What does this fold into?
Amino acid sequence: MRSARPAAAALSAVALLAAAFGVTGCTAQTHTVTVLASWDPDQAEGAAFTRTLARFTRDTGIEVRYQDSRTINAIVRVEELGDSPPDIAILASAAELARYAASGKLTLPDRDPAVDPSQWLYRADDPDRPYGVVLKTDLKSMVWYAPDLVDDPPRTWTDLVERGAALRGRAAVTPWCLGLRSGAESGWPGTDWIEDILLRRSGVATYRAWARGDLPWTSPQVRAAWTAWGELLDAAGMVDRAGVRSMLLTTWDGAGAALSKPGPDGSRCALEHQGSFARAVSAGHTRYVVSPPFPDGPPRADLGVEVGVDVAGLFSESPEARRLLTYLASREGQQTWIDNAHGAFFSPRADLDRQRSYGTDPVALSIATELARPNVIRCLDASDFMPQAVAGAFASAVLDYISQPDPARLPEILAQVDAVRQSVRRAEWLTDPCRVARTS
Amino acid sequence: VLADRNVGEVGDRQLLRVVQGLLIRYLGLIEQAHVSLSQGGVVLAGAYLSYASELLSGSILGGLAEFRDVVATELTAQRHTWWRQPPSQLLWVVPLLVALALAWVSQSYLVARFRRTLNWPLLGATVGLLALGAGAGVPTWTSGRFTSTTEALQRIATARPTATALPQAPDAHLTAAAHAAANSYLLEYLMPLLAVAVVALVVAGFQQRLSEYRLRSR
It folds into this structure.
């Protein structure tokens, strides 16, 4: 028996070496999760998001590749036709995400208990299975003002118009910070204006009917909202040729920057209608007021505020992607996101400790409290809620109207958008953009 | 070569799809400018052209530049990876030599102990080991072609368009060379199979002699 030992040892050694050759390169790989969203990593919103993704990678070892583009809807439509959709796409348009869900392009996420039930999005024809999850929210019914140019916050719509008129002609001051330029998505700052005016002037019921495609664009309520916006800009002296060019060619974030410091032309602006995300792109957003009510506006029970959301959808079955989506929506992920954003991220969750999250930032704390205020009707940005074809026509109509802001042109402009509304199939419309806030 | 790793994988295709989506939007903006101009909206047409120009010079060309940089970085990384440096060859040369030496020692021992000419399964295993070594050496033997191909591709990837000419596209010869350099010749499947076969041959070769030894011991 002793003689067999060298041979057995040699056998083992040769076998092991051969096996070692064979397994070279056979290493386990985890899937790299690809994420498509609109936040620029070079700006605060995108930087906060990428830091949150980095934290996820650090905690789990799962790599994430982030691709940003403001033209995200158009891109995802192209992805839809190709073989390489992202694992997760984060869109501002709930309607677009619902469209993908209806066409079977989306993977429906699991109802993980780490996600707050209020974050799930459901289609009316499939109320049991969510198609997306709300990751981020912003207040949009708000007017920022420069405290050194505007003494106290405007109280009513009439007051707001008069403030603009009072600032007209003041040297080196433009009453309203308004830039409609936003690359391929230009026009959306104007759609936000119209939506907010319609909501605050005509109430939730009208807004709901309009956003779900039941109220024609040629209706008196919609036309009145456009007219009110035109009158506000006219009163502020902003619709002359130079003003029009400035509004069309100034970027939305560049316009807001002049709220606190002079722009390239040396002038400041005093008031800005912009969402809470403006804090992420400019440091001058320190005072705001919730969009003031109209004197002849709806009763309190029908008065809502407009909010914007960013919703995520799963385009793959990858377990790693599901894990990332759950993390981003969870308490832990949202808290990390808040910590990384320095007061420029607002969570759709009501169970976070706002005092701890924003305690040193009174403006952020105020906005977060406003977003979580109980018994307030919050309505999603209508252009994000409408089918893309209508939303695109809406933005184009804003640019068209501002280029020649003559109220006499409104019927034709609104009729064109309404023709698009009527051409969209009923199934592409979502049903209810407004919901009463949960108690906090 | 591009298919060898990330470039050409999902992330890179997505980047190109982003550019494709932006191009479609760019054409839409140009069309809107055209319509506005035909309706007398000179200011609006100018605005649309301005948006289109911004999109082209910023996001679209920026996206393509990013892709070029990714390609260039990856090609450089592939060329300079430690696995393609001479010292890394020791990782497979040394085990190969040790394995061959052990096979030779085993063969000699078995010939002497059992007075047979050759142990054929063990000889087959030795040939299999040589084949494994040859497979592991493919990157070394093709390194010259790999280097020249990646350098040529990198020159194309980093070339910038001029006012009158676009960067040259890879010609058929370079495309064929890139395919050849990236071709693994199914080694990722063949080598594990070969390794299993070697192990089986070694076991078979020794099993005969061990059985014979046990019979003789009785």
